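Think of the structure tokens as a kind of shorthand, similar to the way a musician reads notation: each symbol stands for something richer, in this case the local conformation of the backbone. In the example below we present two proteins back to back. Begin with the first one, reading the sequence and then the tokens, and try to describe in your own words what changes along the chain.
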Amino acid sequence: MPATAALEALTWVDACATADIDEEDVIRWDHDGRTFAIYRSPEGDFFCTDGMCTHENVHLAGGLVMDHVIECPKHNATFDYRTGQAKRAPACVNLRTHPVRVEGGRVLVGL
């Protein structure tokens, strides 16, 4: 299936307002029994990952965001929130990422 068709096949869920997230920040979003983290990059783009650190299941929304990296508040593991890539130990498993689009000042997450 082409990438465009795959994106259209997703269910797009309204997660928050764009104004809810400052640049270089993260918020927690819970939906359908799952926790997600939604980020706003220094360029004003939005990204979404699973909301729990892959190392010890800690909420990432309590962590520090700098540039395109989220640092877990418990053991300082870091991830590139654009790709989910684990960047620093103790995390060695990447985060799952989710597509995001913005419509009418709202952040929508594709699930």
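Once you have a description of the first chain, move to the second and do the same.
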Amino acid sequence: MIRRPRIPVPEDFTAPSHSPLVAARLGLWLGVAFGLCFGTGLLSHFIQHPPGWFTWPTRPVNLYRITQGVHVLSGVAAIPLLLAKLWSVYPRLFVRPPLRQPIRLSAHALERLSVLVLVCAAFFELVTGLFNVAQSYPWGFFFPTAHYAVAWLVAGAILLHVAVKLPIARAALSTPLRGSRAVAAAAPGRDDSSERRAFLRTSVGVAGIAVLATAGVTVPWLRRASPLAWRSAAGPQGIPINRTAAAARIVVPPDWRLEIVWPGGRETLSLAELAALPQHTAELPIACVEGWSASAHWTGVPVVQLLRWAGAPTGRPVRFTSLETDGLYAASTLPAAHASDPLTLLALRINGEQLSPDHGYPCRLVAPSRPGVLQTKWVARLEVLR
């Protein structure tokens, strides 16, 4: 006679790592990682697509470099923490639904649905985020839009999950891992506290190693200790790039002139005339949304001084248009605060050398505390907006 396999129940899983004490602590750390990732990601989205009420400061010049680095590295840390959290709670999948109690059954089904949404959305964010830092997009949707929308889904699912599990989590977090009377009463003669602590230390350690192995993308002094960093100081003229001049199909006309327009006025300059204007050198980072960043010494004309020279009004937003014609970021709008900052340059040189084509020759925008996608290369036109 063949016996049917018995469906497991949560009580069958006795490993210390399945303890509510472990799950609650992992959930707390995972919540911090997701909170940092969500908050800094929201900032990055608002910088690139600013609502009317939003402003972003120009100083410190490394501010976006820091916030976007935190965004990516907190996402990296969340991956092992999420896997450890799922391991600690997966026996809960075998809780049998209260079929004879409609109200409790509905609550049970709603909780399971919310957990499913949370797990699927969290994995979507983390996996697509990893593909994004590798600049690989094997899907048919536009990554920024989908990533932003699902981020709100994750945030809402986390809040719902916390609200449902708060009494259990609060009790578990208030119970010490070492010498717990509750645990001793539940399992006389057995002390699993050392195993629980070892599992938690391992989970946090793996998350720390993952961060250390990748942090060199944005922390220069960690580059030699970060074997998995996806960008380094290597690249044309010592600075990495995301898009080459060839990929952007850039052709600089022999008679190239920079056009500056504003309501009621227009001025043009050749490259020689632009280089003859007073130049300023500043050390500024290029900080990309993929999390990598690198600093360089940029030399060029401060945008505010260029506008004054042309007789254009200052203290207004300025739209920069590239020679690139078909890119998503062929143009960008510089907020008034950045356009007025003396460190915002229309750069002609990098680290003492003339810009290479891949870095934006004949000139490019370099502004403090701005995403790299908004540091327009191959600039052809400046338009002062109203």
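Compare your description with these statements about the second chain. The chain has two domains: 10-225, 238-384.
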